[in-house]
């Protein structure tokens, strides 16, 4: 049994460069540009449930914003290897087309200026697609649609390294309501 465990760990390390969390996004903190209705909470996309019918209450959903976005805060900086997205099944699967996956530590423009991992060409109705991000570094993983539309995500999974210790998040990148706290911490 012990040998098997070691082999599994070694194979994971070979594939990913180091051991990784299966889903670093699960039940962390998600936000989005707006809320369509009570069924479309941003956290529905990180609830561990891939049910793809909106009425099931497990998908996020914005209003038709000019540039709708969704973002998960992983709470710590990680190397991100894979982002896996499950699309809505019951309607409007084409709305995901052209959405960008962005990863980084900045909240400038709500994180939408962070480096881009991938552009989603399309995902089938209720389908799940995985995008390789090659260890990009960041605390935030965003999905942004660079056009006016709705954005709905039924699940977003983030395969990432464990927390990267010693990699600070720049104070200038923190949201405004975090700055005072960080500054006070520095003045101590
Ligand atoms: Ca879900």
Explain the layout of strands and helices.
Elements lengths: L1 H15 L12 E4 L36 E18 L13 E5 L11 E4 L8 E17 L10 E6 L15 H12 L1
Antiparallel strand pairs: 1-2, 2-5, 2-6, 3-4, 3-5
Whole-number tally of structural domains: 1
Number of strands: 6
Q: What general outline do the C-alpha atoms trace?
A: globular
Structural category: alpha+beta
Q: At the fourth CATH level, what is the homologous superfamily?
A: Galactose-binding domain-like
Radius of gyration: 17 Å
Which residues sit in consecutive blocks of at least 5 with pLDDT less than 50?
A: 3-17, 171-188
Percentage of β-strand residues: 25-35%
Order of helices and strands: HEEEEEEH
Helix content: 10-25%
The main sheet comes to: 6 strands, antiparallel
DSSP helix count?
A: 2
The end-to-end distance, rounded to whole angstroms, is 49 Å
CATH topology: Jelly Rolls
The kinds of small molecule bound in this structure are: calcium ion
In CATH, the architecture is Sandwich
Q: What is the CATH class designation?
A: Mainly Beta
